[in-house]
Q: What sequence folds into this?
């Protein structure tokens, strides 16, 4: 996932950008999902007025779930 961040303040600062995944709109029967789950994050530092494009890697396994009923 890529997005742009900017320090709008007058001092430098550290920040942690976080990307969350929500539950599917139509989850499979008898499968429980968290409402939101942290999928990835990136810590960075920006100087006053500085902007940067960040890239947060989301492992493809974060989009998967295990079905005990199907064993896969």
A:
């Amino acid at each position: 996932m890529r997005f742009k961040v900017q320090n709008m303040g007058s001092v430098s600062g550290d920040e942690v950008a976080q990307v969350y995944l929500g539950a599917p709109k139509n989850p499979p029967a008898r499968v429980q999902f968290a409402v939101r789950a942290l999928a990835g994050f990136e810590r960075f530092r920006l100087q006053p007025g500085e902007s940067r494009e960040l890239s947060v890697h989301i492992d493809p396994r974060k989009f998967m779930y295990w079905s005990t009923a199907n064993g896969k």
